[in-house]
Amino acid sequence: MTIEAVIFDFGGVIVPGSPTGDDPNSPMAMLEREHGLPTGFLWPAVYLNNPGWLQLRVGEGSYEAWDVLSREAIAAISNVETADAVVAALNASRPQGPGLSGKRAEFNEGMLPLIGRLRTRYRVGLLSNAAPGLEEELRDHYKIHDLFHDVINSATVRLAKPDPRIYHLAAQRIGKPIEACFFVDDLAHNIASARETGMSAHQFTGYAGLAEALRAAGVTPE
């Protein structure tokens, strides 16, 4: 089916900061090296297996509760001082939340012009696992909310990727069949789940790879 909509993740795609640490220059990978933590430890400890984040991303809990659990997980294999330093650094590098105050909005190279071009020919959406408040941050801090025909924040709809229901919701709200949607995310398990629903999908590692994948799907990125 011809692609009629392109749906983007936010963190790690539109803005820097893929959390997994697969990139040796990512904030998490650098923190692990700096503080002598095992390679790949922070992603599951702070996100994937952290009840604080799993609750926050569906509109429950709080940043404070998430931070407490993150500190406990890090301190369990290091010490309290290391845990405090790592959590403070993570808070400062997050693309959302209290740490945004006073920070300059940064975007991955080429992404905003790409979205602007696509918007003239396709429906364009944003689908993000995020904490409450993302919509306001897109308007007030990043000033990109109006680039998208639709914005889905997992905390607002109380569903999170990779739950298949959230991809169906995204297609429904963007007004196109799910098979006509192309999804972009930086995490492999979110891509796999999107494909299982019938979406085309691409795991983001940079603009060049995304542009090539769009062309292969019949979407001209220029």
Would you write up a description of this structure?
There is one protein chain. With 222 residues, the protein is an alpha/beta fold. The protein folds into two domains: 5-16 and 106-216, HAD superfamily/HAD-like (Rossmann fold, 3-Layer(aba) Sandwich), CATH 3.40.50.1000; 27-94. It is built from eleven helices and five strands; from the N terminus they run βααααααβαβααβαβα. The protein has helices at 27-34, 42-48, 51-56, 63-75, 80-93, 111-119, 134-142, 154-157, 164-174, 188-197, 207-216; strands spanning 5-8, 123-128, 150-153, 181-185, 200-203. Strands 3-2-1-4-5 form a five-stranded parallel beta sheet, sandwiched between helices. Helix 4 (63-75) crosses helix 5 (80-93). It starts with a strand and ends in a 6-residue tail after the last helix. The model has no long low-confidence stretch (mean pLDDT 95).
Briefly characterize the structure:
The protein is 45% helix and 10% strand. With 222 residues, the chain is an alpha/beta fold. It has a five-stranded parallel β-sheet, with helices on both faces.
In N-to-C order, the SSE pattern is EHHHHHHEHEHHEHEH
How many strand units? 5
CATH third-tier fold name of the largest domain: Rossmann fold
**Shape, please?**
globular
Structural class category: alpha/beta
| Helix-residue proportion | 40-55%
Largest sheet: 5 strands, parallel
Measured between the Cα atoms of the first and last residue, the distance is: 21 Å
